[in-house]
Amino acid sequence: MEKKIDYKQLLKNNGILIVFFLICIGLSILSPYFMTTNNILNIFRQTSIYGIIAVGMTFVILTGGIDLSVGSILALSGMIAAGLMKNNGIGVFIASVAAILVGGGIGLINGVLITKGKIAPFVVTLGMVTIARGLTLIYSKGYPVSGFSPEFRQLGGGYFLGIPIPVIIFIATVALAWFILNHTRLGRYTYAIGGNEETVKLSGINVNFYKTMVYVIVGIASSLSALILTSRLNSAEAIAGQGYELDVIAAVVIGGTSLSGGRGSIIGTLIGALLIGVINNGMNLLGISPYFQQVVKGALIIGAVILDRLRDETN
Amino acid sequence: MEPLLKMSGITKSFPGVRALSDVGFDLHKGELHALVGENGAGKSTLMKILSGLYKADSGELFLKGEKIVSTGLREMIKLGIGVIYQELNLIPYLSVSENIFLGREPKTSIGTIDWSKMRKMTREALAPFKLDISPQQKVKSLGAAHQQIVEIAKALSLKAEILVMDEPTAALTGNEVDRLFEIIKQLKNDGVSIIYISHRLEEVHHLADRITILRDGERVITKNRGEMSNDEMIKYMVGRVLEEQYPQYESVPGDVVLEVKGLTKKGICEDVSFTARAGEIFGFVGLVGAGRTEIMQTVYGYRKMDSGEVLLDGEQVTIRNCQDAVMKGIGLIPEERKQQGLVLGMSVFDNAALSVLDLYSTAGVLHRKKINAEVNTMVDSMNIKTPSVRQLVRNLSGGNQQKVVLAKWFIRHCKVYIFDEPTRGIDVGAKVEIYRLMQNLAKRGAAVIMISSELPEVMNISDRAAVVFEGRIVREFKKGELSEEQVMEYSLGLFDKKGA
């Protein structure tokens, strides 16, 4: 017994991960169905829709910003892809690229208004919530667009080597984001800007460019999710993605990324997103009322932040 | 006579550091006792124990001969100890009276705030200072000196008999300092006892009845006013004689690297022209507010110029923002190291690498190995004291933090380095190290510009210097050409205007 493990420290540093495993163990005892391959893939697939956006949101929150318009960007880009395919007979690939351009484009507008217009991210993206939603309604005239080619429906419903394609896209997004955050200038500047923007500016770095880029990234992530969701539902609706920003921000925050910027990780966001997915799934399996589920989710967000604060105090 | 306050055998440790060991300190009624020492000597810790913020590990505290057992923040305020911290603790968007009576607002019979009574009480609290501050005025609209006075009034309204002032003049201008000194003298006459913490030895000589010097958490000496010279005080503070406070070296000025012609920015500077040569240190002196920092920030592209030219190596360049400046080989080490020089929540490594990521990356992907090697070499060669390059900069001492800022720029090999008050808030020992580093830059062929408010520093370290007064360069001089007094006259605008 020469080595003594500091359990307190271990718990504080990996709190969310430990909570995640405890909940998984608990659920697998309470429900025999929980630990089946089918159910796990199901959790991953459900998580991937907002998980992909959460990956993009991690960049934004790391810079100390926020994007409330992700749900509306999702609706608009999904509707445009659907419309192009359904009404204009345009191919899956071009329509998907168009959706991503729309998502990235709205992110670009957000970013430019925030950096060049010097308006708070909260205000700009709050405005964009209704602008993008309004554009979706104008474009679709309020009607859903549904019934796509089998090719397109593969995106949300297909499998590759037994793994759902949305899950593959989600994991690939996480891997790419991890690489960008740790091995590229964009990534390191993202952290640095959130830590102290003034210092970064005085170090001769084009802060406005990099800050704009993070909104483009979350815009693209939102349109990627839009394609998966549209494909999976076989329908694009103007109300799609409403309220998504809350789950997305929750995943990032539960994952330990600080809302004031500068601190956090993409692995944290992955765990945060999965935790929300597991809890939703578990409570469904246990037949807990959806009303009660809301309360649990809210408590989880607050609990995660308390855990984070504890870690801060000890380090 | 029994002292009003007596602290004895005070010892306090933090994890890994002994901040105070067996320190004694006393204070008489109506006395001003100055507490002097380098950064980290334990002055603030001692005062935080007195204010009740920290609890001493051992030691005793007597007030008017009675032993104080419970030492919480509230208890100490009740016992008449008022502390005015270096960073003022006022709420900017509340009025003067709300700030003074925060938490003890007078109430009307139905429990709402009795505004008229509060205004009256505020006027009474401010009366001794003979200022025209309205109780309704927002604190934000007051100057630094008046804010300080509001803090003093607040402490006194709490019936403070002992005032602790931590570097009260740090944010004040010349006139405001004089004003504060008058008030301090008046307070003493009224029987208030003051503990005065300051780096500025002149102030201490001017104000103090007694002086206590701390070093490395121990009391070195306590002497009456006039019993110690500046040199002796420095010796006690540093613990050794500083043979060379200003290291000398042979400068070999080369070609002009940076030339600024007719730089003008409305409200900041007018027709500023100067040159900086390779291999020399060019000083930039003047009073606080003369526009030195702003002129250099304009050259650096942080502010937009109205007109003027910047030439690098004889070629005209356009600098629209800091990025342009850095790309063209100018580095600026800002005055506010925590707010502008560092990302405190990031590691030594990330901070030091911040300025060179563009040099060591391909299509945005970083060459980790190369950057690691560069940073490690620099951290070693600059003797930055940190357990590892992964340590957060937040956890380093002030001197080491400043070295990290320098490392960030040294890695980049600029042609021109602009230092804005490089030694502000740094111990005497670390200053010498910073001077040496600047001289090394000059030796390796860079042009070094040093903005400084410390006249002796400029006189001894710079090869040439310009005096700035109200946004204009009023005189340029070579080392040894002018006396300190003459430079001061130029700084104050007391020069003969015929030639200009």
Tally of contiguous helical segments of chain A:
14
Mean pLDDT of chain B: 87
Q: Helical segment tally of chain B? A: 17
Q: Could you spell the SSE succession of chain A in H and E letters?
A: HHHHHHEHEEHHHHEHHH
Here the CATH topology of the largest domain in chain B equals: Rossmann fold
CATH superfamily of chain A: ABC transporter involved in vitamin B12 uptake, BtuC
Fourth CATH level, the homologous superfamily of the largest domain in chain B: P-loop containing nucleotide triphosphate hydrolases
User: Roughly what fraction of the amino acids of chain A lie in strands?
Assistant: under 5%
Chart the SSEs and their pairings.
The complex is a heterodimer of chains A (315) and B (500).
Chain A: H1 7-13, H2 15-30, H3 37-62, H4 70-88, H5 92-115, H6 121-140, E1 145-146, H7 150-157, E2 159-160, E3 163-164, H8 165-183, H9 185-195, H10 197-202, H11 207-233, E4 235-236, H12 244-254, H13 266-285, H14 290-314
Antiparallel strand pairs in A: 1-4, 2-3
Helix pairs in contact in A: 2-13, 3-8, 3-9, 3-11, 3-12, 3-13, 4-5, 4-6, 4-11, 5-6, 5-11, 7-11, 8-9, 9-11, 12-13, 12-14, 13-14
Chain B: E1 5-14, E2 17-27, E3 32-36, H1 43-51, E4 58-63, E5 66-67, H2 73-78, E6 81-84, H3 96-100, H4 115-126, H5 144-157, E7 162-166, H6 174-189, E8 193-197, H7 201-207, E9 210-215, E10 218-224, H8 230-238, E11 256-265, E12 269-277, E13 281-286, H9 292-299, E14 307-312, E15 315-317, H10 322-327, E16 330-333, H11 337-341, H12 348-353, E17 361-362, E18 365-366, H13 368-381, H14 398-410, E19 416-420, H15 428-443, E20 447-451, H16 455-461, E21 464-469, E22 472-478, H17 484-491
Parallel strand pairs in B: 3-8, 3-9, 6-7, 7-8, 13-20, 13-21, 16-19, 19-20
Antiparallel strand pairs in B: 1-2, 1-4, 4-5, 9-10, 11-12, 11-14, 14-15, 17-18, 21-22
